[in-house]
Write a structure and sequence with these properties.
six-stranded parallel beta sheet, 12 helices, binds D-glutamic acid
Amino acid sequence: MDKRPIAIFDSGLGGLTAVGALLDLVPNENLVYFGDTGRVPYGTRSRRTIRRFAAQAARFLMGFDPKALIVACGTASTAAMGSFDCGVPLVGVVEPSVKKAASVTRNKQVGLIATPASVRTGAYSACMRAADPDVTLTERDGRLLVPLVEAGRVNPGDRVTGLLIEEYCAPFREAGIDTLILGCTHYPLLSGYFAAALPGVTLINAGQTAAAALSGLIKPSGLEQPGSLRFFVSDDAEGFSEQAVLFLNRTIGAEFVDLEEVLV
Ligand code: DGL
């Protein structure tokens, strides 16, 4: 038994897709989350900056003595995995989602939509080559989607969201993919739009696959009741709590943390 929490990190809200999956898979684990809402988005930044932010987030979370850390951010997973040492099992979203996609595709045509920084690193394509060299990965950056999700434009019938997703999905239709990796943890909130634009295509939720990979690595807490949940953000805690309902279908409380103050 190991009551230490699982730590989860994202640039903002998207990592809550991993939290939602953990609440289903391992409800009796204690969780501690950091969303770097004061510096989101990461997806348009340089690798050097993303690495610095990710290392700071990991350092903050290590203060909670976690038993494992999930980098529940596609961008940080592609740009910063391996660039900091945390001394506990570390899971990002790239490998679990790629392995899942490689295992479910039938026609070996897989799509990836992720942030510009994620696509630029080539991390998903390198991982796919290793997982199954026969798979062709069609990649596309969805740079306008994170601001839409952060603005809550996720409900069915949003014309702007619908048009954008249609446009982003055109190369996937042309390639005839049967599986699409939603390689940014914000995107599962737009699953309905992707499903409508790409009928019959299997959608892979990167945060969910990371949560599933991690739950197989940890020693259970042994708690007989739901674990504790703590959420920290580097900007507006109230706003985060309000938007979190979209991801978790429940209300949560979040605490503000000033990383510059706590990491001195
Ligand atoms: N959650 C981030 C990711 O998965 C997207 C938001 C950002 O650009 O920081 O890449």
